[in-house]
Write a structure and sequence with these properties.
Elements: H1 2-33, H2 49-55, H3 73-86, H4 91-108, H5 117-128, H6 135-143, H7 148-170, H8 178-240
Helix pairs in contact: 1-2, 4-5, 4-6, 4-7, 6-7, 6-8, 7-8
């Protein structure tokens, strides 16, 4: 009897894993096609299936694998246009860099140079346009559901292009050495592309690490609660059993 119960439980767990994998696979397909409306919930975590499809690989596909893994470059490149079309938040880091560029142009024209607005604008441009701040690259890595390194690379190229325009405009001045301006332009452009790719990939890994830690903590709490409930039920059953009469 006990052996039959164990077999039934194993079969039930197997069917549950297969059903959950199928649900998340369907949600992932909807996310990649841009048709997801966020309706279904993961029966284990209570989170939307679309979020589960975005943030973690299927358990059946990658059992026990965590941390860094080689990306699927072809699939990631193919997913970029769809993600740009369906995830409007991915444009936020690009808009921040563009805002820093426009503010720098305004300061070069004599605007926002007073004691009040000057330091504020300078801080904004340092955080958004200067590739050494890493803020916008980290942000796009968090926002991209997949292919974060590609979005970081694209943002780095966009940043490098705007920096090149600014440095080309400043290099036309009478007191600027063109050779020095070219060196600075190449260095900053290289930093923007390289650090954009690396930091976006790291931000995506860190985001998945945090979410994985939350999921593990949630499962651990559920297991503890299940054990406590089982112990209480066992105590209740033991209390209901009639006491055995003492042997004469």
């Amino acid at each position: 009897m006990a052996r039959a119960k164990n077999v039934d439980r194993s079969e039930a767990r197997r069917r549950f894993r297969e059903a959950r994998a199928a649900e998340i696979a369907a949600a992932r397909a909807a996310v990649e096609d841009g048709d997801d409306e966020g309706g279904g919930l993961d029966p284990v975590t209570g989170r939307p299936l679309a979020a589960a499809a975005e943030t973690a690989p299927l358990e059946a596909e990658q059992p026990g694998r965590r941390g860094f893994r080689l990306p699927d470059f072809r699939a990631d490149i193919a997913a970029v246009p769809t993600l740009f079309r369906t995830r409007k938040r991915l444009f936020v880091p690009f808009l921040l860099v563009l805002a820093g560029f426009l503010l720098t142009l305004a300061q070069n024209q004599g605007l926002f140079v007073d004691a009040t607005s000057g330091p504020i604008v300078a801080t904004i441009t340092q955080l958004t346009l200067d590739p050494r701040s890493l803020l916008v690259f980290f942000l796009i890595g968090f926002l991209a559901p997949r292919a974060s390194y590609i979005f970081g690379f694209l943002l780095g190229v966009f940043n490098a292009l705007l920096l090149t325009i600014l440095l080309a405009m400043s290099a036309s001045g009478p007191n600027v050495n063109p050779a020095d301006a070219t060196t600075v332009m190449v260095n900053l452009s290289f930093q923007a592309v390289l650090m954009g790719t690396i930091m976006a990939a790291f931000a995506a890994w860190y985001r998945n690490f945090l979410r994985g830690s939350q999921e593990r903590g949630r499962r651990a709490r559920a297991e503890r609660e299940a054990k406590q409930l089982a112990a209480k039920k066992a105590e209740a059953r033991a209390a209901k059993r009639p006491a055995r009469p003492a042997a004469p």
